[in-house]
């Protein structure tokens, strides 16, 4: 029976890079006895999170996993479980299975969720290790803001951070998060890593993940992956926010244009995004001091301090001079939206007079032509 390594995030800690690496090297990993399943998702195992949560709790996750409605939920989840079980039992040479999905951090906050997850895993594994990466909460929130803008967020950074204080306790209170998973899988089976330390490795968090799997010696033999997410500077973020505030069509062409605009802004405006003032950042981070100390004592007893941000980047907070014509950019995006809307509308072919009129018998033995039915005489080219 295989062992399971269950990577739950957290979000904004290099999960996309890890998942991309594991998917790209799936065959090479299996040759070494490590299975990265396809049945839960090609790269991101979103079906694991969907199985763990009821549709009413996370409809977006379910739709991402191919579960269109609550009416088809149970049927689809039965298929997910059967497909996953078949893949695991068929991989006879796999001694370790890896599941990776950051939505398990963000969405699996109820006991019911982990009971459901354990049901999916039941009888398949001799042991389960839960892997979780953490970063300072203020850094986490600022990075999340950038992701939100790509997805359609309309708030300024200050508005977004103010709203983060009301999110569910498990999201930023890592003591609550880890205790929740520890109750179901055992504290001794929770493996915690600090993102800020691990990202300094040669391949960043990918190197860290390989070490956890016991594959650090083989690191050079795997195919590398490019950086998953690039940073957008504050000007690019402002353009995204302006774009998001416009009325945007929702068809397939609009989604395509939206993705292209995101890519163009990412290429055209790389760099450090918006950051709060040092005072705001310190006040935000201080709310988690007690919980972070609990995590330090339990998982990092030899460290004097953990989850402390690099305050220097917040000290450099200042309004940057800009030479951007935002009005022009807004007008340009509005034109793109109009084009997308036109493309998504079903094209109706206008009826010609010929199509509208009932067919009349021609007095001539020659077949009727379009020109013979025109309301004005047609002067064709004279024959020579």
Question: Secondary-structure element sequence?
Answer: EHHEHHHEHHEHHHHEHHHHHHHHH
Major sheet details: 5 strands, parallel
The whole-angstrom Rg is: 28 Å
Beta strands, count: 5
Secondary-structure-derived class: alpha/beta
> What is the helix content?
40-55%
Mean pLDDT: 87
What is the architecture of the domain at 2-136 and 169-228 at the second tier of CATH? 3-Layer(aba) Sandwich
> Which regions are unreliable across 5 or more consecutive residues at pLDDT < 50?
359-384
The top-level CATH class of the domain at 2-136 and 169-228 is Alpha Beta
Q: What fraction of residues sit in β-strands? A: 5-15%
The CATH topology of the domain at 2-136 and 169-228 is: Rossmann fold
- Number of helical stretches of at least 4 residues: 20
Strand order of the largest sheet: 2-3-1-4-5
Q: CA-to-CA gap between the ends? A: 90 Å
| Shape designation | globular
Detailed description of the structure:
Helix 3 packs across helix 7 (111-121) and helix 15 (252-268) runs antiparallel to helix 19. This protein has a domain at 2-136 and 169-228: Rossmann fold (3-Layer(aba) Sandwich). The protein is an alpha/beta fold. It has a 5-stranded parallel sheet with strand order 2-3-1-4-5, with helices on both faces. Mean pLDDT is 87; it is low at 359-384. 49% of the residues lie in helices and 7% in strands.
């Amino acid at each position: 029976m295989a062992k399971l390594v269950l990577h739950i995030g957290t979000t904004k800690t290099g999960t996309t890079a890890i998942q991309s690496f594991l998917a790209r090297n799936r065959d090479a990993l299996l040759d070494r006895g490590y299975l990265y399943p396809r049945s839960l998702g090609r790269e991101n195992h979103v079906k694991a999170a969907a199985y763990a949560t009821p549709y009413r709790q996370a409809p977006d996750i379910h739709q991402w996993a191919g579960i269109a409605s609550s009416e088809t939920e149970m049927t689809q989840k039965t298929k997910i479980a059967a497909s996953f079980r078949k893949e695991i039992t068929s991989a006879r040479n796999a001694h370790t299975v890896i599941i990776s999905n950051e939505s398990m951090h963000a969405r699996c906050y109820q006991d019911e969720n982990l009971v459901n997850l354990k049901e999916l895993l039941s009888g398949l594994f001799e042991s389960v290790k839960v892997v979780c990466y953490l970063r300072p909460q203020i850094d986490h929130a600022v990075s999340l803001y950038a992701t939100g803008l790509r997805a359609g967020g309309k708030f300024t950074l200050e508005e977004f951070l103010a709203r983060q204080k009301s999110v569910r306790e498990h999201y930023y209170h890592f003591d609550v998060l880890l205790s929740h998973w520890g109750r179901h899988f055992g504290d001794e089976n929770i493996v915690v890593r600090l993102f800020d330390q691990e990202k300094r490795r040669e391949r960043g968090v990918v190197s860290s993940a390989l070490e956890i799997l016991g594959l650090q010696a083989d690191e050079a033999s795997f195919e590398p992956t490019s950086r998953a997410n690039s940073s957008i500077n504050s000007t690019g973020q402002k353009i995204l926010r302006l774009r998001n505030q416009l009325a945007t069509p929702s068809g397939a062409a609009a989604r395509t244009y939206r993705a292209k605009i995101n890519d163009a802004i990412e290429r055209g405006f790389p760099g450090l995004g918006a950051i709060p003032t040092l005072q705001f950042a310190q006040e935000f981070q201080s709310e988690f001091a007690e919980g972070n100390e609990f995590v330090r004592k339990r998982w990092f007893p030899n460290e004097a301090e953990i989850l402390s941000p690099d305050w220097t980047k917040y000290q450099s907070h200042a309004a940057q001079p800009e030479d951007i014509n935002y009005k022009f950019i807004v007008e340009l995006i509005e034109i793109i939206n109009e084009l997308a809307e036109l493309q998504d509308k079903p094209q109706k072919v206008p009826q010609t007079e010929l199509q509208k009129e009932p067919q009349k018998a021609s007095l001539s033995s020659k077949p009727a032509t379009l020109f013979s039915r025109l309301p004005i005489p047609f002067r064709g080219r004279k024959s020579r």
